[in-house]
Amino acid sequence: MRFTIATFVLLHIGAVSAFAPSLGNSLPTKLHETAVAEPETAETETKEPVIVPTRFDRLKANWKGPVRTSTAEGLGFTYEDFDTAVAKTTYAFNRNDIVKGTVVQYDNGGCTVDIGAKASAFLPVAEASLIQRSYSAEGDTTSNAIEELVNLNEEYDVEIISEEDENGQLLVSVRRIQYREAWQKIVKRKEDDEVFEATCIGVNRGGAICLVDGLRAFLPGSHLAGQLPTEDLIGQTLPLKFLEVNQEDNKLVVSNRRAVVETQMANLSRGDIVTGMVKALKPYGAFIEIGGMSGLLHISQISYDRIEDLEKVLIPGQQLKCMIIDHDKMNGRIALSTKTLEPEPGDMLRDPEKVFELAEQTAVKYHERMEAERKAREEAAKDIVLGLGDSLDDLTSDEDGGDATEDPLADVSDNLDSVL
Questions:
Q1: Mean pLDDT for the stretch of residues 323-344
Q2: What pLDDT digit, counting tens, does each position of 163-185 carry?
Q3: Exposed, middle or buried by CB within 10 Å (0-12, 13-18, 19+), for 179?
Q4: What residues are paired with 195 via a beta bridge?
Q5: Distance of CA 48 to the CA centre of its chain
Q6: Model pLDDT for residues 383-415, shown as the tens digit of each residue
Q7: CA distance from start to end of the chain
Q8: Which among 57, 59, 104, 196 could disulfide-bond with 53, CB atoms 3.0 to 4.6 Å apart, if both were Cys?
């Protein structure tokens, strides 16, 4: 029994010693592999170097610079005054407000304007001026570049026409201010009925277009004096008067003929010699154009001799001299005469060139003759008045020797009373 147990122990120990080499060889291998991997991990990881500040760096970080002290001595205001001024100053900009602005920079499609807001305002080229183009006889001269409409570093009155955008910028306009000012001038001119000048910028079938204080006005062809609405009219400066002003409908109508008539009629008087051109013939006379005005030469005022056929005496387009015998300045009407310029009755029918050549001399003689006739009429009228005075004296004298101061109608009154 004991032998059996001892034998079993020995066999068990031998079995264990037989497997011991293999276990001993495998364990060191695993330990070696682990020991090799750990140094590789340490080599791949890099640590930031620690910088230790020097004494100079610590002093520099703690130093705040020299200490400056400020006082209000010598100043004309205090901090309280400054706070009050800031409180009174408003920085609110509302739409339709008119503010001062300075052009600081030209930009694409407009310019930048400093109006004192938190961001500069923008002035589009279309809003920079009421008059975008200039006109000349050679053609349109384009001036709608922003550099031609506003000057750099110059101050203008501008109107705010928009709200702030996402950048706080506003849109402003100069044109809208000029538009209102132009209508105010035009209404004043219409009330005063004054003559003004304007430039023709275009023509159409009905007349011409004129630029009046930056606004477009229509000039009917019938109110053009002495010319037709053709392309030659563009660029010309014409004297005008208003026919109609309607701001609500944005309507302006002007007349060149009224302005010319009023200007020339102011310098005309009866007896003046004028030169005109025959424009049209009518059964009762001829219409003569004189400096844009139309005068009537009645058939009875052409010659002292009787005229059977007017077309044999005058033709359209003919130049002739006439004497003004009457005029209506209010309506621009003139009455003319050529028979007053005839040296001899009937010369207009026989030799009209002689009449026009001697027109001034004949007019002087005519005025002298008219003056002599006027004085003769005055003398005759004076004699008539004196004769009437003598007759009245005879009527007031008492033939029966009665009182001359007695009422001559006393008996008549009595008789009337008795009748009533």
A1: 81
A2: 888 777 889 999 999 999 999 99
A3: middle
A4: none
A5: 76
A6: 787 776 666 566 555 555 555 445 544 454 444
A7: 204
A8: 57
Compare 418 and 51 and report the one with higher pLDDT.
51
The SS3 call for residue 70 is coil
Q: Residue 23 above 90 pLDDT?
A: no
**If we measure between CA atoms, which residue out of 373, 378, 370 comes closest to residue 340?**
370
- Listed residue (257, 278, 273, 277) closest to 333, CA to CA: 257
DSSP structural state of residue 302: T
Helices (H) and strands (E) in the chain, counts: 10, 17
**Centroid of chain to Cα 227:** 26
Spatial CA neighbour of 219 closest among 256, 182, 169: 256
Backbone angles phi and psi of 137, in degrees to 5: -65, -25
Does the pTM surpass 0.85? The reply is no
Domains and CATH numbers, the chain: 98-173 (2.40.50.140), 187-261 (2.40.50.140), 269-366 (2.40.50.140)
* In contact, 314 and 278? CB cutoff 8 Å: yes
What SS3 class is residue 108?
coil
Instruction: Go through 95-106 and write b for each residue having 16 or more CB atoms within 10 A of its CB, e for each that does not.
Output: eeeebebbbeee
Q: What is the pLDDT of residues 25-60, one digit of tens each?
A: 444 444 344 444 444 444 555 677 778 888 888 887
| DSSP sequence for 266-290 | TT--TT-EEEEEEEEEETTEEEEEE
Mean pLDDT throughout 281-292? 84
What was the pLDDT predicted at 30? 43
In angstroms, the Cα distances linking 131 to 106, 134, 165, 183, 402 are 19, 8, 28, 14, 91
Rounded distance between C-alpha atoms, residue 141 and residue 199, angstroms: 13
3-state SS class at 349? helix
Q: What is the average pLDDT value for the chain, to the nearest integer?
A: 77
Q: 130-157, pLDDT tens digit by residue?
A: 887 765 555 455 557 888 888 888 999 9
Strand ranges for 143-268 from DSSP E: 155-160, 172-173, 196-203, 207-212, 215-220, 237-246, 251-255
Kindly give, in sequence order, each residue whose CB lies less than 8 Å from that of residue 216, ignoring residues fewer than 6 positions away: 201, 209, 210, 252
